Amino acid sequence: MSVPPESAVPPPSQGPVVEDTAAPSSEEKQWALFAHLSALAGCILTGPWFGWGCFIGPLIIWLIKKDTMPFVNDQAKEALNFNITVAIICVVLLILTVVTFGIGIFIAGPIGFIVGIAWLVLTIVAAVKANEGVRYRYPFTLRFIK
After folding, report:
1. What CA dihedral angle connects 8, 12, 14 and 15, to 10 degrees?
2. Which residues contact 45 (CB under 8 A, 6 or more apart)?
3. CB contact at 8 A, 71 and 133
4. Contacts of 2 (CB under 8 A, 6+ apart)
5. Which residue in 2, 66, 103, 117 is deepest, having the highest Cβ count within 10 Å?
6. Kindly report the CA angle at 61 between 56 and 66, in degrees rounded to 5?
7. Is-contact 30 70, C-beta < 8 A?
8. Which has more confidence, 12 or 96?
9. pLDDT higher than threshold 90 for residue 129
10. Percent of the chain with pLDDT over 70
C-alpha cells in the first residue's frame, strides 16, 4: 500500500525561528542594565528578610518592555529567572533551619552566605554584560519563564 504524495507532505510550519542578531540599541542596553540592577535595588530596599523585592524589578521591566525590545525581553527574563531561583534556594534553606529546630543553621548559614555573595557578583557581572550588549546567561538558573 503506497501513500499518496500529498499526504506525505508535512503540514506547514509556523516558520523558522529567527534569533534577533541585530546589535541592541543604547536604549535597549540601558533597560537591560536596569533589569539586572533592579534586582539589586529591590533587595537593598526590602532587606534580606523581605528579599522578595529581588524579582519585582525585573518582572516589571519585563512586563513593560517585552513586546517592544527583544534584548530587554531576553535579559529581563534571565534576571527574573535567576532571582526566582535564588529566592527558592533561600526558602529551602529557611525550611531546613526551621525543620531542624535551628540546628540546620550550621548548614544553611554558610550555604546562604555563599549564595548571597554569588548572587551579588553574578548580578553585577550580568549588568555589565547587558550594558555592553551581550546576552548574559546566569549559571545554575531554573528557567521558569521561557
Report:
1. 90
2. 53
3. yes
4. none
5. 66
6. 130
7. no
8. 96
9. yes
10. 82
pTM listed for this prediction: 0.79
Could you give the C-alpha distances from 136 to 75, 110, 124, in angstroms and in order? 7, 27, 11
What is 63-113 written as a DSSP string? HHHTTT-HHHHHHHHHHHHHHHHHHHHHHHHHHHHHHTTTTTHHHHHHHHH
* AA letter at 8: A
**How many residues can be counted in the chain?**
146
Residue for grid cell 546562604: 112
Task: Give the integer Cα–Cα distance in Å for 135 and 63.
Answer: 18
CA angle 64, 65, 69 (to 5 degrees): 170
Task: Give the CA angle between residues 113, 30, 63 to the nearest 5°.
Answer: 80
Closest alpha carbon to 65 in 55, 75, 56:
75
Distance of CA 79 to the CA centre of its chain: 3
Q: What is the pLDDT of residues 45-62, one digit of tens each?
A: 876 655 667 888 899 999
